Amino acid sequence: MVLILSYDGYEQGTEGVIDWLLYYGHPFLRASANALLRPDSDWEISIHDGQVNFQGVNLKAETGAIYFRRFEAKIPYYDVGDPKISRQLQQELRGEAERLTTFVADSLADKFWLPTIAAANRAANKLSTLTLASTCGLAVPQTHICRSRKEVSRLFESCEEGWITKPIEYCGYYSRDEFAYTTFTSRLNSTQVAELPERFYPSLLQQCIPPSYEVRSFYLMGQFYSEATLTDCSTTDMGETTFMDIKLKTNDEKTRYVPYQLPRAIEKKLERLMQLLDLNTGSIDLIVSETGEYYFLEVNPCGQFSAPSERANLQLEKRVAETLIEKDLHYGK
Amino acid sequence: MESKPYNDLFASLEEGQLPIPYLFIARINRAAVPELSKRDRPAAVAPRHKCDNLPIIGPDVFSDSVWWEGDLAK
């Protein structure tokens, strides 16, 4: 049986794979970490003998392959009137949940994981991955963590193409009324630099690489399935800010998506990186500069792949399902 | 003059208290973001696979399968 650890709601990388598991008639079970925490959910866990049952299924005995998308619970914030007590309570509930989800994952450590949680967590750190990519011979943009206007000004003097800034980790959508607020990759100009606070929270500054086009490559068990995105212009102006983010070009009628073959030499370097990260799957972002050089940006172990799969006819959901079935039959009873 | 989006959310903070990207946070209409407009329609965020909407492709195909119904499926 394939165990799918995913979100409660719709998840693009999950649903399409389940379509194919159904098509092949292969048994599977879908579970979430939130379900694990719900008092009325059907989990039975005994620590002394390491048994984990869900919906009456003995996961240790029945599972051969695990498709990991996410196994992290939403921790409730209970407003008990004193923010300090509420925050402490939430932090402690998070600790309880983390130990429990980790135990469930650990008890299934001998199964085939696509990918393993440990590797996914490690690769999620963009900073460490960039350094590692560089050691694999991949070109990476110059990247710095700055804390002062002076540091940023110095960078501006050193590089003609300019600098972009983006969160080190992630910024979701903040909702207010009919608006959503989020950060996109922003290209700084000299006026903005001059207006920066003298000191600020540690921030990522990265050399701007004007792209000829961008490549998203899905890696699965040693194979690369790639799509190139070609745009008329790589920047988007909103008010006084210039964004340099491919996400803002999705609805642009001049944006083109095409299946793409990476040069073998680049694939070899990327494969080396994936091996060092112990990742058997992931979505890799690259920029191809105007001079034809391939710059590695990041790898997302549980990236969204349904859009490139459909646009470039890569059939990734089918390939993932077939991998899971093959491994399940091999690792299962 | 239109206020900076930053001030809509973080006016009470000094600018240096947040990483630089937050100074350039963008304000967009929810309806213009496919990901969010989808999220705003409950039917679109429900997991597609639950017991009552599975495509039926054969009587024995599902005999070994178990499905968990998430919150949104209820």
UniProtKB/TrEMBL annotation, chain A:
| Record-level Gene Ontology MF annotations | ATP binding; metal ion binding; ribosomal S6-glutamic acid ligase activity
Give the GO cellular component terms, alphabetically.
cytoplasm
**InterPro entries registered for this protein in UniProt:** ATP-grasp
A Gene Ontology biological process term: SOS response
Q: Where is the ATP-grasp domain?
A: 130-325
Question: Keywords for this entry?
Answer: ATP-binding, Nucleotide-binding
Does Nucleotide-binding appear among the keywords? Answer: yes
Q: What PANTHER family does the annotation carry? A: BETA-CITRYLGLUTAMATE SYNTHASE B-RELATED, RIBOSOMAL PROTEIN S6 MODIFICATION PROTEIN
Please identify the protein, giving its name as recorded. ATP-grasp domain-containing protein
Species classification: Bacteria, Pseudomonadati, Bacteroidota, Saprospiria, Saprospirales
